[in-house]
Structure formats: structure tokens, C-alpha cells
Amino acid sequence: MPMRRPLPAALLLPMIAVLAGCGRAPATQAPAPLPVEAAVVSGGTAETGATYGAVIAHDRETTLSPRVAGIVAAMPAQIGARLRRGALVAALDAAPYRAALARAQADAARLGRADARNGALLAAGAVAAADVQDNAAATAAARAAVGGAAYDLASARVTMPFDGVILTRTADVGATVAPGQAVATVADLASPLVARAQVPATVAAGLRRGAVAEVQWPGGMVAAHVLRIGAASDPRAGTVEVDLALTPGAAVASGTVGSVRLAAASAPAGAHIPAEALADSHGGHGHVYVFDRGVARLVQIAVLGIDDDDVRIAGLAPGARVITTGAGFVADGQRVEVLGQ
After folding, report:
1. Within 13 Å of residue 248, how many CA atoms lie on the same side as its CB?
2. Rounded to whole angstroms, how far apart are CA atoms 252 and 258?
3. Residues β-bridged to residue 217
4. Residue 47: pLDDT over 50
5. What secondary structure does DSSP assign to 190-256, as a single string?
6. Residue 235's pLDDT is what?
7. Considering the entire predicted model, what is its pTM?
8. Fewer CB atoms near the end CB (10 Å): N or C, the chain?
9. Using 50, 70 and 90 to split pLDDT, how confident is the model at 72?
10. Of 233, 229, 271, 76, nearest to 158 (Cα)?
11. Would you say 196 and 81 are in contact if contact means Cβ atoms under 8 Å apart?
């Protein structure tokens, strides 16, 4: 919630008088309107044909890492290598995991043999039923441990999740890696190249999927179209992430920094109000009190961003009057009087 500046004396004294008068007024007399100050909602300037910074990357990229810890024993894939799905990217020293699997298999086999003997012994009354049940439970646990050890052994190999290319290598043979530590970044070459840009929310609000755009980077330029428009706005920067798909065949490396230019027709005007007019703000939404024919009306708005002492909003038409000074003392539906009108 924005900070409220102190009430000016010209406004505070009439308010005190109103409050004092309310205490002496008969029950049937309506309270006097609360004196407030108001500001007119100003229309924002559309940002047409503007250029925004962007990072170009394949739409489907991911970082690969092992699920288990270990020493990298093999790293055959080099940067730029094109591999099929399932191809080896990195392999950890599997000796500890093979040993763990062998121990688990031996335990499961030993307990399984005991289970087989217990069946005959129980029929002869030579073993208690509780002991048979305990051994059977231990056998089930041992077999589950075999499955876990086999999974760990398989996890010592990091493979391609799809047909693609190696973009980066962040580990090499001999390195000790922790579970989840990145060893490589890969991209699906079948996915389009995408320019990701942070666009002002006032501009993003007018964009539509398929809208034509232009992407430029050092040494190249290509046409593009809007692929995705983010559903959330950064409350501080007032921007929305927009993904633009480049025309197929563009020769640009993933991670290249460039810029995008949107069509001028996609940028609608916004509106501004003083920050002190905000009654509250949370998650891209807020409330203000609008002066409506002598009455304060609580209205919900969309908060698009902050510019110094002004707030960019949507949901109020330019020309509407929002209560500024005195808004903290107002209730929805209360009679108010704008000073100086």
C-alpha cells in the first residue's frame, strides 16, 4: 500500500469540523460530506512500433544432470554434437552402484530361500507363524531394495531426452558431481527459435497470438510472430514476458541477445493516477475510490506498473476522478466533497 502524505491544513480543519459537528447533530440529520482532494485519470501515451531487448533461444531447451552423485567417467558429447534421443551425454563411475545392486540381490535371494523353507516348516509346526510373516516382510523389503539399487545404477547414465544438440558442457571427465548438478545444456532443434522479450503491460494487453513482429540481432534480422503472451505482469517493472517465434531457417545461435520490434497497431493507450490514490495493491490488482456525483465508490483496477509518483493502471476511463488526499478516511458509498472544484 502506498504511503500517505500528511493531510494539508486546508483539508484537515474542515474534516475536524465535520467530525465535531457529527457529535452534536440530531440523529435524523445526515452527516456533512467529507472534504477530500481528487485527481483526474490521465490517458497514457501508446508505445507504438517500439523496440524491446530480447534473448533468442530454442523453445525447447533443458539442463541435464544426474540423479545420483559420483565421479564423471565418460563425457563423449562435445559442444555442437547432434545426438539422438537416448544417446549418452555423461556417465558416472558405476562401480559403487553395481556393488549396491549386487548386495541387494544377494539379500533378496537369501530371504527368498528362507521363505521357501518356512513354508514347509510352518506346516510341520517347526516355526512360528509370526516368524514366517516377519521373514516374508523382510523379503518384500529386500526385493524393493533391488529395484531401488537398479534405478540408481541406471541413473548413473545421463542421456538425451530428445533428438537435439549439445549447447554447453558444465562438467568433464574426473569431476565429482552432486545429485542435480548440471553437466550439459541441450536443445531440441525441431523446436522453433524464440525471442523472449519483456514488454510493457500496456503494450502486451493489445497483442494477439500470430501478430507480426521483427527480430534483429548483430548481423541478422528476420520476421517473427507472437507465439505466447505471459499471463502475469512484473509488479515492479510493469512488464509481461512475450515469446516470438522466428521464421524457420534463421541462422542464429541460442543465447544471442537481440531486439524485437512489434507492429504499431498492437500498442494500446494506458492510464495514470497518482500513487497516493491507491487504497491497496496486491498481485497486479488494486482498489481506488472514484468520485461519483458526490459519493465515493470503491473500484477495482489492474495495476500495470509504477512510474515515479504515478501508477499505470487499467480499468478506469481517462477523465474519471480518483480520491487522493483523504482516501484513507473514506468508506465505500460515503458522501464526499472535492475541495476546490
Report:
1. 3
2. 10
3. 220
4. no
5. TSPEEEEEEEEHHHHTT--TT-EEEEEETTEEEEEEEEEE-S---TTT-EEEEEEEEPTT----TTE
6. 79
7. 0.57
8. C
9. very high
10. 76
11. no
